[in-house]
Structure formats: structure tokens, C-alpha cells
Amino acid sequence: MSLAVEIENLTFSYNQGKRNAAPTSHGSAEGSVEGSAEVSTESPVLDIPHWSVPQGQKCFIFGASGSGKTSLLNILAGILTPASGTVRVLGEPINQMSARQRDKFRAQHTGYIFQQFNLISYLTAVDNIKLANHFASQQGPKRKVSKKQTIMPLLERLGIPSADWHRPINQLSVGQQQRVGIARAFINQPKLLIADEPTSSLDTAARNNFINLLTQLCANDNSDQQTTLLFVSHDTQLAPHFDHVEALYDFNIAADNCQSDNSTDNNYQGNEHKREHR
Ligand SMILES: Nc1ncnc2c1ncn2[C@@H]1O[C@H](COP(=O)(O)OP(=O)(O)OP(=O)(O)O)[C@@H](O)[C@H]1O
């Protein structure tokens, strides 16, 4: 079984030295992973002895606020780097890459749907998506896509009216911006898709519609390899939409203290979804 993600003996804290700058609104990181790790005296945010996700899986990860969900996703995206341990994404040890190599790897292989979308507000929907494709095609073999043949059909598939394709993002509704966020994450046909609480500002119907769109796109009609989906949220009502469900505090020792903070997590009854290999 091929693994999309494999973590061994990972620790991470925000006070582990100058190597881990907080992510910018564009999701880039400053600094390099080269050189020896600095040891923090603070309790780590993440302490993960072992965790893995098979390729093609649609995995839902839940955890209380502050338990480290976004930090974990940022490490998997190569935006943050761990203090220790190994992080393999699609078989590549991204914790051994330089910041530039991680940026390139992310542009080529990883789609990220941010909690706050991180779209460029004065650009149109089409141009936001085009820009993501431009970055990826500059970084390596990803092809440049055509607005007419690829971007506009994708926006149509996501239910965004054509009248809105050329309007600045800040004139679109929140739900429309979230769907543009999906289109941007998918435009380079990523093998790994990371989604950080992307439905937090949607009502129930829009939320279910959003997740259905996401899982349909991950099924990759034109490819034999499904996109692996890692979707994090504190809202366990979303769990039935996914193949597998993980509680962050089950594999992140450092999140144990956050468990009792969130009654939604503690009420979750779907533990039969947990995997054996954790
Ligand atoms: N840039 C930062 N600098 C210092 N500490 C941070 C930073 N970002 C997050 N933290 C701390 O790290 C811990 C984990 O934060 P993280 O954002 O990963 O949690 P989360 O589970 O995604 O939370 P939420 O569900 O509220 O978004 C929290 O205690 C938070 O205060």
C-alpha cells in the first residue's frame, strides 16, 4: 500500500528557533530546514510518534480548537518544519528539503484550501486560479492551462455563474469564494489536497454541497490515482462524508490536554472508523 503521508517521531513547537516563521497570507515560509534542530523548552504543539495516510484516502481529522490541526497541515504542506522527526509526503522526506524545494514540491503536488481562503481580493476568480497555475508551471513540469478550456469549465462545474468569473473576488459571496478556493486548489491536479476548516462559515446545505464537490473532484475522472484528501475540522457532524476519521488527540500526544475542551469531539461516536495501523 502506497502512503500519501507518513510521519515518524515528529515534534513541533512555535518556539523551536528562528527556522519556523509564522506562515504569511500567501502560505510561504521563511528560513531553511538545513542545519541542526533547535530544542525548545516549551511543550510541543505536536508530538506524533507515528501516523500515516494511504494514497487515495479521504481522511477527516477532528480536534478541539488549539489542538494543532492547522500546525499539522502546515507541516504537511511544507510551510512549517518540525523540530525533529521525519515527514514523508508522497514518499518524499519534505523535512529534509530546503525552503525553496518545499515551495516547489507544494506547487507541484499539494493543493491547499485555507480557512480564510487566502485569495487575492482584487483579482477575479479566473485570475486567482490562473496565478496558482502560473506558479506551478514556473516551478516544474506542470502545464499551463487555458482559461477557456480548463479554468472556466471548472468554475462552471463548481456552480459559479459565468457573470461572476471576471468580478474581483471581494465582490463574490463567501460560499462562492470557498468554491473558487477549491478550483484554485485543484487547478494543478494535486496528488494531495489539504483543507483547513473550509466550511466553517457555511450553512448545513451549502456545507454538504461543498464537501460533495470536493470528494467528486478528488475522484479524478481522468486519472487512475485518486487525490488524497486531508480535511480538518472541529465539527464531527462532517465525519460521515469521509472514508476514514481520525481524532487528532489519538495520534498527537501533545493534543491530549485539548481533548476535554470540546464537547463535540467527546460526543463523537464514530470510532469504528479508526485505522488499525496507527
Ligand atoms: N504563529 C503562532 N505562533 C505561536 N503560537 C501559535 C501560532 N499559531 C498557533 N499557535 C499555537 O499553537 C497551538 C495550535 O494551534 P493550531 O492553529 O495548530 O490549532 P488548531 O487546532 O488549528 O486550532 P483552531 O481549530 O482554533 O484553528 C495553539 O495553542 C496556538 O495558540
TrEMBL record:
GO terms assigned for molecular function: ATP binding; ATP hydrolysis activity
This protein's UniProt keywords: ATP-binding, Nucleotide-binding, Transport
PROSITE patterns, per the entry: ABC_TRANSPORTER_1 (PS00211), ABC_TRANSPORTER_2 (PS50893)
Biased composition (Polar residues): 17-27
InterPro entries: AAA+_ATPase, ABC_transporter-like_ATP-bd, ABC_transporter-like_CS, MacB-like_ATP-bd, P-loop_NTPase
Keyword set includes Nuclease: no
Region Disordered, residue ranges: 17-39
Domain ABC transporter: 5-275
Cited SUPFAM superfamilies: P-loop containing nucleoside triphosphate hydrolases (SSF52540)
Pfam families attached to this UniProt entry: ABC_tran
Family classification: Belongs to the ABC transporter superfamily.
Protein name according to UniProt: ABC transporter ATP-binding protein
Organism: Thalassotalea euphylliae
